[in-house]
Recover the amino acids of this structure.
């Protein structure tokens, strides 16, 4: 009888030990996990035609409760015509992009998104824009439709950008 009781208690103890929580389990993401600097490629098209492909950094910074600012360092576009210099967009900063955390992934969305940057050395607003994207396993993927400065009014066209980067 004592032996049966001993093995019952031993079996119960082993079951409890085998099902205990592990320290290796993934903890839910926080905004701080998503924020940081990313290195990757930003591909931009204009009316489905290639416009620019740049290796660029993107910074994600907390802007408030479930809001982030996303800044693209630099994008150099194709020349509008031969003999004209390529357009250079720098410090494109998108403000107050909604961040949704879901376990080990996060998603971004804003339509419209506000922002500004520099176009060929002059300050310009980001217009007619929306952004969406995801973050998982230290990888950031963004889809971004926008016009810059007076581009939309002049050309009636939107730039479409896709960014894939890895957190540094």
């Amino acid at each position: 009888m004592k032996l049966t009781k001993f093995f019952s208690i031993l079996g119960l103890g082993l079951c409890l030990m085998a099902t205990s929580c592990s320290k290796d389990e993934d903890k839910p993401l926080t905004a701080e996990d998503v924020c940081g600097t990313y290195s990757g490629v930003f591909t931009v098209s204009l009316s489905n035609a290639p416009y620019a492909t740049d290796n660029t950094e993107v910074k994600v910074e907390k802007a408030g409760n479930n809001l982030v600012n996303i800044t693209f360092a630099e994008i150099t576009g194709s020349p509008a015509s031969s003999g004209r210099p390529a357009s250079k967009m720098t410090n494109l900063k998108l403000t107050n992009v909604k961040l949704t955390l879901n376990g080990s992934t996060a998603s971004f969305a804003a339509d419209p998104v506000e922002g500004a940057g520099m176009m060929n050395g002059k300050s310009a607003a980001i217009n007619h824009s929306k952004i969406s994207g995801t973050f998982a396993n230290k990888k950031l993927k963004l889809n971004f439709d926008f016009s810059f400065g007076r581009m939309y009014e002049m050309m009636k066209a939107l730039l479409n950008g896709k960014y894939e980067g890895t957190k540094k």
